[in-house]
Task: inverse folding
């Protein structure tokens, strides 16, 4: 079901806020994982300001939806939303990579409120997310909700219980070169983890170069389907497509299939220099020129 133009406009305004927060992080520190962070801006905005079930007063609320940022070097994309959600003070944006800061170079569960996964080595997040999804499925089976069975209800043994939380995992296309991604994909398919939604940031470039040159992934959609996943490809910078697709993935819970959304994105999206050179990390002149372009474009 398509969302209203009013919602999309509201989310577009949130994208501007998140983008400005990301650029503030970069400007204050003079460095950052710019490419994969900018390619995630719309996706992260849609998740945190529309889809996720969160409690702004309790970042560890047991019933919250989980977000596993497997490509944890793009943590700046998540950091940019945390002050808006209410998990950290706004001034934390100016403390990226500082000593004892809550915002370190990679997402860290133990020092940053609102982060569910500590990452560094690529390829591991989908396994972690599958474990979290499996844990919730087991919990439901062992402790089903109290529902009276009547002629109007389905028998308890064939009921589909809605999970207390869903697990959203964000992986990079470069990560999909890792064998552990496909072990996790097999595991999720075998155990029918339909409360797991994996989003692939398919920006076509990894740190070593074009992903299809380093190790071809195509057809990526069919690979996930072959492991028993529901798959849909979208434009990862089109907010309407993002919110419609994630809502669809939520609604079809109960089909026994983990969900994979392949989001086609542009590395360094929104900054001409970073788009042109497919920048992974920016420092020095690369950062200075890009921030000048950003101010001319976004003010």
Result:
């Amino acid at each position: 079901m398509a969302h209203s133009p009013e919602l999309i406009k509201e989310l577009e305004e949130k994208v501007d806020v998140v983008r400005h927060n990301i650029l503030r992080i970069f400007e204050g520190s003079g460095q950052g994982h710019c490419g994969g962070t900018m390619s995630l801006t719309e996706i992260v905005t849609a998740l945190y300001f529309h889809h996720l079930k969160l409690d702004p007063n309790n970042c560890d609320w047991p019933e919250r939806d989980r977000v596993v940022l497997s490509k944890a070097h793009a943590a700046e994309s998540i950091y940019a939303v945390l002050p808006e959600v209410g998990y950290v003070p706004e001034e934390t944006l100016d403390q990226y990579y500082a000593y004892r800061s809550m915002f370190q170079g990679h997402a860290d569960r133990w020092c940053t409120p609102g982060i569910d996964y500590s990452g560094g080595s690529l390829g591991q997040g989908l396994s972690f997310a599958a474990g979290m999804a499996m844990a919730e499925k087991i919990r439901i089976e062992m402790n089903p909700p109290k529902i009276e069975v009547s002629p109007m209800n389905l028998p308890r043994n064939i009921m589909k219980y809605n999970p207390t939380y869903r697990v959203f995992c964000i992986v990079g296309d470069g990560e999909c070169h890792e064998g552990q991604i496909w072990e996790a994909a097999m595991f999720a398919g075998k155990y029918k983890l339909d409360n797991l939604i994996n989003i692939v940031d398919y920006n076509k470039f990894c740190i070593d170069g074009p992903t299809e040159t380093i190790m071809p992934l195509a057809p990526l959609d069919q690979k996930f389907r072959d492991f028993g996943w529901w798959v849909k490809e979208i434009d990862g910078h089109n907010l309407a497509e993002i919110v419609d697709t994630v809502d669809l993935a939520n609604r079809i819970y109960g089909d026994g299939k983990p969900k994979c959304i392949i989001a086609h994105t542009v590395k360094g999206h929104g900054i001409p220099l970073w788009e042109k050179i497919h920048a992974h990390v920016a420092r020095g002149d690369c950062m200075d020129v890009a921030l000048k372009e950003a101010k001319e474009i976004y003010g």
Notes: The two ends are 35 Å apart (CA to CA). The chain has a mean pLDDT of 93.
